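Entry type: protein chain
Record version: 2
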Amino acid sequence: MSFQRHFSVPQVLFGLLAALGISHTAQADGDKRMVPLLPKYQQECAACHVAYPPGMLPGGSWKRLMANLPQHFGTDASLDPAAVKELGNWLNANAGTYKRVREEPQQDRITRSAWFIRKHDEVSAATWKLPAVKSAANCAACHTRADKGDFNEDNVRIPK
């Protein structure tokens, strides 16, 4: 006996997105938080911190960050001009353009963006000070799949 079921195009697309771990709503408004990370970006940036998905900041913020690598938040993160150009172009092409990210945060810090503050408003001041956390920029302390660009709340584990 054969069993055949017909699916609509939206059902198939939703199923594929779910299988890839990408939420349907995240893709509906042009959200670029889930683009695959450029290997060069991962290599250079993840050497010191989480390679933040480019959709977490608007293009203007990424441009300023890339132009100021010799003084990158108190560290010299200089790269050769070819790498700066390649990474800058990729970051700009994949920068956040959806409604919540258009606003450039203070000091171009993801942790100072309105959307970040809103998403983390339930995190207590004591949690940010835990030895395993230390700062809001240490995404991997709580987001167990941050290194893969996955910040889904289902994968959050607050350290004790």
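Comment: Residues 112 and 118 are 10 Å apart (CA to CA).
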